[in-house]
Design brief:
17 helices; 14 strands; three-stranded antiparallel sheet; Rossmann fold; alpha/beta
């Protein structure tokens, strides 16, 4: 593959039908890759994933609008031999294909598509990977959270475990899949060969556990639920109440602890042997929080955060969603995108990194079949072939397919 700026020469086919694969493809698109979403002629299941936007008719999925932004869209039924032949022509011209097929189907697909395309990279994003006793098991947002160990450590210690908000595990798996694709592209520069990138959400999530695994392997301790506190023997790494809400204060190191005590006008605590280590502080967290409370409750979130930052103590206000949407930092970073199809004034997360090769302008999620004609023409199909496929119901067309 020739050296170019960013990923501008990388062509990706997104055949996924769930969050992890779709997010991986979105990340590649926002890094500059040419990503084409290939949906069934009836539309991707993501088009009906809640929440549905009620400002326009027919109702649109907020998840689909977000996950499919910056992509072109084509609609093709590749379940038949004729449809598979058309898909093959698209694969001949792509570098990466992303699937979310069940394990057995993913392996069959990989055998077919890469046998005659040695440079093709196939990214398979599943919950449990393509091998092992759990390969092929059904999953959901909740089971992904449970299988990776995060359900067990989330929530109040006196209550049942809780799932984190939304399909968080799927998004993390999507990040892993995008990194896997990038790694395979890098390897291909040296070898000229593609490979199968097998990404399981359970493994990606398990890799993010930090000290929870070490606590067990080296100390024989199982991390437990600790509500809003850090349950790995560090304090303060938690939420604390202030005059107008909550702030998050993280001071696990000794230097940060000393700075925090000075900032809160409690210098005696910095030298108190009862608070000499992070572990000792964790054991008396309630006592520490009680001593901090008068200073914190007399001040607002903004006052506390700015004050602590001035003492080099990590701290942030706990923002509500409307505050996040209007936050000056995200505005200054030009983070938000504005999809007109979602309604007047709607905004969504844009490019999650500052990268010169990222697309300069926002591209909304495609309508079903919006670019089918252009995609097929790019694969070498003529007008008669396209018309024949449309008449047979194997593709969906919308407009002229121009970009």
């Amino acid at each position: 593959m020739p050296e170019t700026s960013g990923l501008s020469s990388v062509r990706v086919l997104d055949l996924s039908d769930n969050v992890s694969g779709a997010y991986a493809a979105r990340l590649l698109a926002t890094a500059g890759a040419q990503v084409t979403l290939v949906e069934p002629t009836g539309g991707s299941p993501l088009r009906s994933r809640p929440p549905l936007l009620s400002s326009r008719e027919p109702k649109r999925s907020a998840a689909f609008e977000y996950l499919s932004a910056w992509k072109r869209g084509a609609a093709l039924d590749w379940s038949t031999e004729a449809g598979w032949s058309v898909l093959g022509r698209l694969l001949d011209r792509c570098d990466v294909v992303i699937t979310t097929l069940p394990a057995g189907e993913a392996l069959d697909f990989d055998g077919r598509v890469r046998s005659g395309r040695p440079s093709l990279i196939h990214v398979s994003a599943t919950s449990y990977g393509l091998t092992g006793p759990w390969a092929g098991w059904r999953s959901s947002d909740l089971t992904d959270w449970a299988a990776s160990g995060y359900l067990y450590i989330t929530g109040d210690p006196l209550r049942e475990p809780l799932q984190g908000a939304g399909p968080w595990a799927s998004y993390v798996a999507g990040i892993g899949a995008a990194i896997g694709a990038m790694s395979a592209l890098h390897a291909r520069r040296a070898t000229g060969r593609g490979q199968l990138v097998d990404v399981g959400a359970m493994e990606v999530m398990a890799s993010a556990h930090q000290w929870s695994l070490v606590m067990w392997s080296h100390q024989g301790r199982i991390k437990h639920r600790a509500n809003n506190r850090h349950a790995e023997a560090h304090h303060p790494v938690s939420l604390m109440q202030v005059q107008d809400g909550w702030v998050c204060i993280a001071a696990p190191t000794q230097a940060q602890w000393v700075n925090l005590c000075i900032a809160l006008e409690l210098p005696d605590m910095a030298d108190d042997p009862r608070y000499a280590t992070a572990g000792l502080r964790f054991d008396v967290a309630e006592e520490i929080d009680g001593r901090f409370a008068p200073f914190l409750m007399a001040r607002t979130r903004t006052e506390v955060v700015e004050h602590l930052q001035g003492f080099h103590v990590p701290a942030s206000a706990v923002l509500s969603m409307d505050e996040v949407l209007g936050d000056e930092q995200l505005q200054a970073r030009a983070f938000w995108a504005y999809p007109e199809a979602a309604g007047d004034g709607a905004k969504m997360p844009g490019v999650p990194f500052a990268l010169p090769s990222s697309p300069e302008s926002f591209r909304a999620a495609p309508e079903l079949g919006e670019h089918t004609r252009a995609v097929l023409q790019g694969a070498g199909l003529g007008e008669e072939e396209i018309a024949s496929l449309a008449e047979a119901g194997m593709i969906a067309l919308r407009g002229a397919g121009d970009d």
